[in-house]
Specification:
With about 150 residues, the protein is α+β, with helices and mostly antiparallel strands. The protein has one domain: Nuclear Transport Factor 2, Chain: A (Roll). About 30% of the residues lie in helices and about 35% in strands. It is built from four helices and seven strands, in the order H-H-E-E-H-E-E-E-E-E-H. Strands 1, 2, 3, 4, 5, 6 and 7 form a seven-stranded mixed beta sheet that branches. Helix 1 runs antiparallel to helix 2. The longest helix is centred in the first third of the chain and has 20 residues. It is globular, with a radius of gyration of 17 Å.
């Protein structure tokens, strides 16, 4: 893959995450698909958005509710399709949130898909998750799934 595409997708991810640090909905908009093709999933039940309109509405509500967001960044891992028009990425983050004067810290797994549209890249799918220890495996085991 061309170095400029790696740099462009890295800059795209950085711009998206930096927009949260700045509470800047316009920078989020310039990082993601602004149409009905955008798909985003958050960490909680009900955090499922399809299209820019739904997602932007939720981000505005988020910025209104949270006093401060700061991401401690990992190193993004980026892969490209053979034709170079699709990239998928993953990164381990630590989210630092300030709400009603209280600080909260949460490890977050961030993954997504970016598509090259013309000369620019846009995130078309993203997902954030929080690893929960001791939930999924014990639940599945009580329902007959074995991992040995």
């Amino acid at each position: 893959m061309a170095d400029n595409d790696i740099q462009s997708v890295t800059a795209l991810i950085n711009g998206y995450l930096d927009a949260y640090n700045q509470g800047d909905i316009d920078s989020i908009q310039s990082s993601v698909a602004n149409d009905s093709n955008l798909v985003a999933y958050g960490t909680d039940e009900g955090e499922s958005w399809h299209g820019w309109e739904e997602f932007s509405h939720s981000r505005k509500r988020f910025f209104h509710a949270v006093e401060e967001v700061r991401w401690e960044r990992g190193n993004p891992v980026i892969h490209f399709s053979q034709d170079g028009n699709v990239a998928w990425f993953s990164e381990e983050l630590s989210g630092n949130f300030k709400v009603v004067g209280n600080e909260h810290k949460c490890p977050i797994r961030f993954t997504g898909v970016a598509e090259k549209r013309g000369e620019s890249w846009r995130i078309v799918q993203l997902h954030r998750s929080v690893a929960v220890e001791g939930f999924s495996v014990p639940y599945l085991e009580t329902h007959g799934v074995r991992f040995d």
